[in-house]
Automatic annotation (TrEMBL):
<protein>
    <recommendedName>
        <fullName>Glycine--tRNA ligase</fullName>
        <ecNumber>6.1.1.14</ecNumber>
    </recommendedName>
</protein>
<dbReference type="InterPro" id="IPR045864">
    <property type="entry name" value="aa-tRNA-synth_II/BPL/LPL"/>
</dbReference>
<keyword id="KW-0648">Protein biosynthesis</keyword>
<feature type="binding site">
    <location>
        <begin position="323"/>
        <end position="326"/>
    </location>
    <ligand>
        <name>ATP</name>
    </ligand>
</feature>
<feature type="binding site">
    <location>
        <position position="98"/>
    </location>
    <ligand>
        <name>substrate</name>
    </ligand>
</feature>
<keyword id="KW-0030">Aminoacyl-tRNA synthetase</keyword>
<comment type="function">
    <text>Catalyzes the attachment of glycine to tRNA(Gly).</text>
</comment>
<keyword id="KW-0436">Ligase</keyword>
<feature type="domain" description="Aminoacyl-transfer RNA synthetases class-II family profile">
    <location>
        <begin position="6"/>
        <end position="358"/>
    </location>
</feature>
<comment type="similarity">
    <text>Belongs to the class-II aminoacyl-tRNA synthetase family.</text>
</comment>
<feature type="binding site">
    <location>
        <begin position="202"/>
        <end position="207"/>
    </location>
    <ligand>
        <name>ATP</name>
    </ligand>
</feature>
<keyword id="KW-0547">Nucleotide-binding</keyword>
<dbReference type="InterPro" id="IPR002315">
    <property type="entry name" value="tRNA-synt_gly"/>
</dbReference>
<feature type="binding site">
    <location>
        <begin position="192"/>
        <end position="194"/>
    </location>
    <ligand>
        <name>ATP</name>
    </ligand>
</feature>
<keyword id="KW-0963">Cytoplasm</keyword>
<dbReference type="GO" id="GO:0016874">
    <property type="term" value="F:ligase activity"/>
</dbReference>
<feature type="binding site">
    <location>
        <begin position="279"/>
        <end position="280"/>
    </location>
    <ligand>
        <name>ATP</name>
    </ligand>
</feature>
Length: 457
């Protein structure tokens, strides 16, 4: 529900996951900054993606290409001509919208698309029939390289990481000695001059993507497409998104991008006002469009000679394209929970708990001396120092222990370790589990093994 996202936005700011960008100057609607815990969470999502997509596979290698590529790349890719959205403006309140988004929202409600924009009410001011004829608007972000703002210097910030992969296809295949089927993966910032950024970090003008281009023999493309849809679906499930919050969305044929034979999105139940599900990741069959167009425009042959079949062909591309920052939002929403925890007076308190998968939790362990005390605190600090070699650890000795547990629950720390007066004699500590709130006594010389078993990498 709407209050869930509000609760997450407020928690994100309060606890240092995500801040409004340039807030002391009033903020910009389109950008957000990642605070101490947000950096760690985003990094963990990125690492999990890299681990499954690159580290654990023999057939995918990594790349980190530039944000600003040669201008010809974007002519060849079709972005200069085709990376456009229909822009309309409400003449009453002067707010701008993407006409296709307005039409989609109408269709979701009425079951059929509107016959014209004049049927629609403005989502901002409510007035009807106030939209201008849509004008095509290019979403590429422009910049000028060099000391003068001349036409020669005009360049673009990449709107996707994919093109950096295609133009390096020969370099990578040769250097890594790979031939189809194989993939190239890349994570990095992309920029789009979005008409309507919004819904927190869901749609921003500057965002991060995790993309992988998988090159296959023509004819095997449909099978590989199915394979990647399943792999990507399983990845989200494995990291804690629940099945009822996910669904596939098959793009209708007539709405496919210029390069695509088939695109299926993995959607998440973000539940923004009005729309239940929204795109989390797009998995497209890009055919041989990309390598062919770059061969044509650059004059460099990007085809492959198949020794077995004694044939030359241009690889087809299956592309799972995910949003890193958008995935962070999905994991934040999914993790958010409220329940009750026993208090010291024998009653219960409401608690907010972020049920992150331990692999994603920004802080893995909190070390808490039972009270601020000249004997307990140094002992606990020493333990925190040891554990920091392996994990992100917080040390906290201020306020009552119950308050400190609540603070850790709210940021999703899987384990709290309490050092108490018994520790001074029995060399053991109490480990509290975030989800069950159960406590267990563990010997200090066993604590690392205990955590290693429960905190997979
Ligand atoms: P949308 O329809 O939401 O604009 P898209 O279909 O244009 O997205 P793709 O080009 O398929 O998106 O990009 C792949 C992924 O990159 C998306 O699934 C999303 O997770 C992420 N992404 C795209 N645009 C943005 C944005 N403006 N802000 C945050 N993430 C984005």
């Amino acid at each position: 529900p709407a209050d869930r996202i509000d609760a997450v936005v407020s928690l994100a700011k309060r606890r240092g996951f995500v801040f409004p960008s340039s807030e002391i100057y009033g903020g910009t609607r389109s950008a957000w900054d990642y605070g101490p815990l947000g950096v760690a969470l985003k990094d963990n999502v990125r690492q999990q993606w890299w681990k499954t997509m690159v580290q654990q596979r023999d057939d995918i290698v990594g790349l980190d290409s530039a944000v600003i590529l040669a201008r010809d790349v974007w002519t060849a890719s079709g972005h200069i001509d085709a990376f456009v959205d229909p822009l309309t403006e409400c003449q009453s309140c002067h707010k701008r919208f993407r006409a296709d988004h307005l039409e989609e929202a109408w269709e979701a409600k009425h079951g059929a698309p509107p016959t014209s924009l004049s049927e629609l009410n403005c989502p901002n001011c409510g007035n009807k029939g106030t939209f201008t004829e849509p004008k095509m608007f290019n979403g590429l972000m422009k910049t000028y390289l060099g000391p003068t703002e001349s036409a020669d210097g005009l360049h673009y910030l990449r709107p996707e990481t994919a093109q950096g992969i295609f133009v390096n296809y020969n370099n990578v295949a040769t250097a890594a000695r790979k031939k189809p089927p194989f993939g190239i993966a890349q994570v990095g910032k992309s920029f789009r001059n979005e008409i309507t950024p919004g819904n927190f970090i869901f749609r921003t003008r500057e965002f991060e993507q995790m993309e992988m281009e998988f090159f296959v023999a023509p004819g095997s493309d449909e099978e590989w497409h199915e394979y990647w849809l399943q792999q990507r679906w399983n990845w989200y499930l494995d990291l804690g998104l629940s099945e009822e919050n996910l669904r596939f969305f098959e793009h209708p044929k007539e709405k496919l991008s210029h390069y695509s034979k088939r695109t299926v999105d993995i959607e998440y139940r973000f539940q923004f006002g009005g729309t239940e599900f929204a795109e989390l990741e797009g998995v497209a069959n890009r055919t041989d469009f990309d390598l062919k167009t770059h061969s044509k425009h650059s004059g460099v042959d990007l085809s492959f000679f198949d020794q077995e079949k004694q044939e030359r062909w241009v690889p087809y591309v299956i592309e799972p394209a995910a949003g890193l920052t958008r995935a962070v939002l999905a994991f934040l929403l999914e993790a958010y929970d409220e329940d009750e925890a026993p208090n010291t007076k024998g009653g219960v308190d409401k608690r907010t708990v972020m049920r992150f998968d331990p692999r994603l939790a920004p802080v893995k362990v909190a070390v808490l001396p039972l009270s601020r005390n000249p004997e307990l605190s140094p002992k606990a600090r020493g333990l925190a120092e040891t554990l920091r070699k392996r994990w992100m650890v917080e040390f906290d000795d201020s306020q009552a222990i119950g308050r400190r547990y609540r603070r850790q629950d709210e940021i999703g720390t899987p384990f709290c370790i309490t050092v108490d007066f018994d520790t001074l004699t029995d060399d053991a500590v109490t480990v509290r589990d975030r989800d069950t709130m159960k406590q267990e006594r563990v010997a200090l010389d066993q604590i690392e093994d205990y955590l290693i078993k429960r905190l997979p990498g």
